[in-house]
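Weekly structure sync, notes
Attendees: PL (lead), two postdocs, one rotation student
Agenda item 3: pending single-chain targets
PL asked that the sequence for the first pending target be pasted directly into the notes so everyone works from the same version. It is reproduced below exactly as submitted, 314 residues in total.
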Amino acid sequence: MLTSGFIVWNSVAESDICLSKTAGALYPELGKGFRAGPCSARLYSEGSVMTGSPRRVVYTCLTNGYDRLIPPVEPVPGVDYILFTDRPEDDRVEGWTTRLIETPEGLSPTLCARRYKALPHKVVPEYDEAIWVDSNIAITSSLAPFFDDVFGSAENMIVYTHPDRDTIATEAEVILQSGRAKALDKVEGEVAGYFADGFPDDQGLIHTAILMRRHMEPEVIAAMELWWELLAKGSTRDQLSLPYVLWKQKLPVRVLSPDFTLGSPYFLRYPHWQTSGRRGRALVWAAQRKARGLPWRWLHDLIISSYGRRSPHF
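Predicted structure, written out during the meeting:
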């Protein structure tokens, strides 16, 4: 179970991240004035403005050519699909509105993308309800019923449970063993800091590839500001820090189970372009062209079947 509640937070200017008391206690050297970088996408969904319904957006961020974005199936009228990218000409994809970004000095491309994940109130403030998807996640059907379902509850943040792990201790162990962390001591120090603060590692683990938020609500802003501060100074591993953030902020969340990788009509996870082999890239290449007709769908399904996996997710 994930716990809920609220604590006071420090307000921030548009261009700067201010240190919260929690982040300051964990990382006293962080200080104020962390430059957040440019914020764009001054967009409104015309249909939602005219009807008075919630303004809705699906958004993602792609940096350094890490993935190849896949066109959404059945885009929902009145919902904007926004891609933030540092390579707009290379990454332009049908169905997505492309917005140019620049990686702020001192941020890696990966951390820049996670900044956009963590701070929707800064990058898409014109909307009331936002769905974040990692750039290797394909939208496979109309999200209209999904929007209505997930935002039909009282919670302002909705998440998927992790399909394989349920504690940050096991998540840290996987990160350390896989070599995905550039600074192993930061992973260990981050987890130790959370435990020293009293974090009970029974809050469950979140699959952060897809996040649903009413991101302009004060309690969500408070939690997301803290999350970004911890990402910026810690190990940068978002699944490691989010359970602590939700516990510390006592933010009510709705947890969707099972995870989308265990059965969802809306999403499909593909291999990362930069880290997959020739077969993985061929699969993504075919997925980008499925809407063009049967030969491309046949090729796509043939490649997936060649993996011999029970699940089509990667």
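Discussion points:
- The chain has a mean pLDDT of 83.
- The longest strand covers residues 206-213.
Action: rotation student to compare against the earlier draft before next sync.
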